[in-house]
């Protein structure tokens, strides 16, 4: 990954440019604060709509500014275009600053509580004079919201649960949010002439789905120069500590970044140590002690004498082990497997030949099928599986019968016109509360594949949810189970379900399990993948993408697949297009015979 370079004025530093999703977040907050201030509803909606539109764009806002296209996008217009341009150039807007002064941080934090929109927050401010999360929590425990108009006991209980959720995830970040920031910082460090080598370490290197901070390790003969560089970079908001070989900063995104610089020869040991995990190191140190070695961040020692190692691989070899990839270093059997020479050869991103679960303009996506085909071509994929939402998902533009015919004709026409990328026609069918799929079997039989997913009624009991999903798996037309636990990282726990029973049902019926690569999901959880492997299940690494940029989320999915010990053979979309076509056709024929 490299620094982002956009075609705009050269005075802008590439690390300073705001991503579309960051711009959308600011526009959303402006919309909420305007509503809180009692502004014109049309103005409030304009900012909310602008947030959705800019986040859905496949090209960066900075690039759209440079080409003059920004103001011409439907839903943006001249006023919002000026606000977005100000965000891109300055990182903030005068309007946002003014609103933040009017509504301090404590009030803005209340808007993050699930179920608390601007109207309810205004009621809490006006009637109970609440100005912070702490005051809100106290008021809930005092039962002061029960008799408040528009609230009541149920609403109060929901707010209490929302507050607990916020506290639970405070100071934690999605891998997909933190990793690009870490890579941008690392790229800046690697470009410095006094840097010999460097790497991202910590839980990011181990591909943990949620992280607390960014760890960077570098080698240099002049560490002070790298300390000066880090604290001067544009994303840095606050310098927490600055020393001769270690500095800590807080970025504007809120995440902390630590840089450690070591002298020549010490880099492999420092990188290994600061990669972790703690559990892996404890187990490795125990093994090392048994062999007469000592290992720490400064080196490997045998009988108190330092042992030179060129890289991490040599550290493991000295201890009689095969090299253990960072993703596996969690003390979940990797040391024993490395000792016994049974570590799997983990899947690599270059082995992915195509992917599934991509939405188009026909439901809640933005690209056309032709645009998806071109995106696949540029990525070197031989196929993509398009799967818009089914009819029950009205909120997401789910497709009715007549739209299905139009979609089918469009995809057939594209496939007939080009042969290097094949588009498979699918649907993301809602799993209805009784476990049935969202179209009659006659309609289901026309698709190349079906991703069966749950999007509603999350409040079932574990037994009810397990039966619901199992019944969907038993449907002969179900090809894949989408985002199996329904979790949204740092936002919503998965629904209660017996995943062992679900995986066993999938194995019996030959249903592929999706590893949803969207960084907000990364579902199936990597901790469940060993069970999936034992059952012989195939895993499909799918981005659940709604715009072209989302195709890159496959990268995150591969990291989680590696963390789950998956090999090329375990991953369905390492197959070539012809192999996938044959598999899907065979499954369709089998489903037709079972009707």
Can I get a quick summary?
The chain is of the alpha/beta class.
Write up this protein.
It is a single chain. The protein has 595 residues and is of the alpha/beta class. It folds into 4 domains: 20-163, DNA polymerase beta, N-terminal domain-like (DNA polymerase, domain 1); 171-264, Beta Polymerase, domain 2 (2-Layer Sandwich); 268-343, DNA polymerase, thumb domain (Beta Polymerase, domain 3); 349-594, Alpha-Beta Barrel (TIM Barrel), CATH 3.20.20. It has a 7-stranded parallel β-sheet. α1 runs antiparallel to α2 (41-56), α1 (20-36) crosses α5 and α1 (20-36) crosses α7. The longest helix has 18 residues, at 577-594. The chain is globular.
Q: What share of the residues lie within helices?
A: 40-55%
Distance between the termini: 49 Å
Number of strands: 17
Task: Quickly count the domains.
Answer: 4
The second-level CATH architecture of the largest domain is Alpha-Beta Barrel
The name of the CATH superfamily of the largest domain reads: Metal-dependent hydrolases
Strand content: 5-15%
Measured on Cα atoms, how large is the radius of gyration? 26 Å
Averaged pLDDT: 90
CATH class category name of the largest domain: Alpha Beta
Q: In terms of structural class, how would the helical and strand content be classed?
A: alpha/beta
How would a crystallographer describe the biggest sheet? 7 strands, parallel
What is the general shape? globular
Numbering strands along the chain, what is their spatial order in the largest sheet? 11-12-13-14-15-16-17
Number of helices: 24
Low-confidence stretches: 1-16
The third-level CATH topology of the largest domain is: TIM Barrel
């Amino acid at each position: 990954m490299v620094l982002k370079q956009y075609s705009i004025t050269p005075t802008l530093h590439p690390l300073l440019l705001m991503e579309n999703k960051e711009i959308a977040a600011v526009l959303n907050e402006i919309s909420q604060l305007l509503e809180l201030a009692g502004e014109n509803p049309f103005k409030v909606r304009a900012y909310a709509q602008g947030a959705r539109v800019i986040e859905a764009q496949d090209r960066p806002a900075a690039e759209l500014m440079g080409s003059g296209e920004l103001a011409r996008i439907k839903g943006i217009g001249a006023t919002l275009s000026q606000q977005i341009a100000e965000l891109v150039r300055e990182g903030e807007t005068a309007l946002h600053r003014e609103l933040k002064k009017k509504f301090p941080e404590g009030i803005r934090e209340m808007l993050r509580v699930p179920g608390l929109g601007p109207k309810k927050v205004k009621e809490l401010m006006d009637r109970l004079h609440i100005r912070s999360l702490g005051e809100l929590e106290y008021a809930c425990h005092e039962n002061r919201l029960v008799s408040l108009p528009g609230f009541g006991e149920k609403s109060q209980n929901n707010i209490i649960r929302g507050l607990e959720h916020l506290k639970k995830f405070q100071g934690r970040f999605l891998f997909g949010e933190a990793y690009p920031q870490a890579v941008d910082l690392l790229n800046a460090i690697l470009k410095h002439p006094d840097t010999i080598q460097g790497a991202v370490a910590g839980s990011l290197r181990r591909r943990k789905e949620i992280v607390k901070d960014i760890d960077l390790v570098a080698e240099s003969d002049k560490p002070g120069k790298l300390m000066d560089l880090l604290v001067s970079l544009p994303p840095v908001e606050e310098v927490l500590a600055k020393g001769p070989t270690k500095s800590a900063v807080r970025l504007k995104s809120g995440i902390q970044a630590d840089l450690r610089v070591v002298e020549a020869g010490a880099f492999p040991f420092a990188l290994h140590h600061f990669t972790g995990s703690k559990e892996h190191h404890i187990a490795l140190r125990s093994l090392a002690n048994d062999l007469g070695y000592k290992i720490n961040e400064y080196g490997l020692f045998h009988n108190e004498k330092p042992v030179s190692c060129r890289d991490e691989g040599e550290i493991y070899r000295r201890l009689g082990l095969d090299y253990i990839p960072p993703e596996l270093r969690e003390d979940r059997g990797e040391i024993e497997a490395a000792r016994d020479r049974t570590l799997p050869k983990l899947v690599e991103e270059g082995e992915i030949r195509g992917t599934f679960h991509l939405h188009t303009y026909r439901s809640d996506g933005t690209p056309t099928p032709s645009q998806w085909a071109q995106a696949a071509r540029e990525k070197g994929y031989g196929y993509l599986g398009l799967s818009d939402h089914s009819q029950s998902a009205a909120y997401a533009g789910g497709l009715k019968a007549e739209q299905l015919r139009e979609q089918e004709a469009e995809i057939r026409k594209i496939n007939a016109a080009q042969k290097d990328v094949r588009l498979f026609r699918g649907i993301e069918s809602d799993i209805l509360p009784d476990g049935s799929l969202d179209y009659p079997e006659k309609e289901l039989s026309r698709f190349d594949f079906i991703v069966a997913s749950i999007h509603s009624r999350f409040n079932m009991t574990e037994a009810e949810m397990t039966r619901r999903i199992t019944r969907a798996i038993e449907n002969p037309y179900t090809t894949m189970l989408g985002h199996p636990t329904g979790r949204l990282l740092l936002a919503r726990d998965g629904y209660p379900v017996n995943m062992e029973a679900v995986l066993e049902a999938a194995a019996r019926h030959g249903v592929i399990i999706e590893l949803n690569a969207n960084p907000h999901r990364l579902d199936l959880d990597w901790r469940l993948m060993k069970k999936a492997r034992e059952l012989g299940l195939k895993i499909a690494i799918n981005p659940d993408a709604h715009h072209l940029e989302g195709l890159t989320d496959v990268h995150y999915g591969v990291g989680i697949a590696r963390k789950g010990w998956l090999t090329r053979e375990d991953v369905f979309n390492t197959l070539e297009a012809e192999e996938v076509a044959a598999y899907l056709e065979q499954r369709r024929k089998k489903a037709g015979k079972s009707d």
